Amino acid sequence: xxxxxxxxxxxxxxxxxxxxxxxxxxxxxxxxxxxxxxxxxxxxxxxxxxxxxxxxxxxxxxxxxxxxxxxxxxxxxxxxxxxxxxxxxxxxxxxxxxxxxxxxxxxxxxxxxxxxxxxxxxxxxxxxxxxxxxxxxxxxxxxxxxxxxxxxxxxxxxxxxxxxxxxxxxxxxxxxxxxxxxxxxxxxxxxxxxxxxxxxxxxxxxxxxxxxxxxxxxxxxxxxxxxxxxxxxxxxxxxxxxxxxxxxxxxxxxxxxxxxxxxxxxxxxxxxxxxxx
Length: 277
Description:
Layout (H helix, E strand, L loop, with lengths): L2 E4 L12 E4 L5 E3 L17 E3 L15 E5 L7 H15 L4 E5 L30 H10 L2 E7 L7 H8 L2 H8 L10 E7 L2 H16 L4 E10 L10 H7 L1 H18 L3 H5 L9
Parallel strand pairs: 1-6, 5-6, 5-7, 7-8, 8-9
Antiparallel strand pairs: 2-3, 2-4
Helix pairs in contact: 1-7
């Protein structure tokens, strides 16, 4: 097995209590199986996971190549399906990866330490109390990142925005004249949405990574939507039957892997001049 889909909870049913938590809104449900849908937010039953006690996430240090991030509030929605397709391609190519659904993790807002004093914003991050330090460690370790996001009001999801805001400590290393930890790494971007918003959202995401020294893979952006004229209840069927999105996601993943395997990161180490705000 080349990849890991990281899940906050065990895949087996929680024995004593049999309680389930909606990963979208946090609603708790008791029963032998999760409900067909969430009575609070309307999400389908696939968004429920066993309501086990949350343990602070930490990266144990085992090397892997690609960090795969689902930035949607819905772990099992259309954006999640794009990530499923990315997983399929990474597995087919024998590339090691780890997948994470941000809705299952605790990532607090950035404290904006740099606005108080520049040297306060450094790595490791001063906020070590949530799950972000584990992601920081993986960003510094993985050779590439593939990020997927829906379009929320013509931009990325709020969860992904918080995640990316918290990468400021990597960017600020350059301003503190410290060695960078991310320059020369590769990024690919997948967007669930229509062309107008998708390209803007993809570039908004890329600008974060560009300021950390990442390289966008050639043809490294894919997006797809069903169309505003259709009812959202038909989206899932459309996505799963659509050959174009399968081909496009496969292409982005393949391009990320090809650039990553050239080992550009090692070849550029010490040769780049950081230009970052």
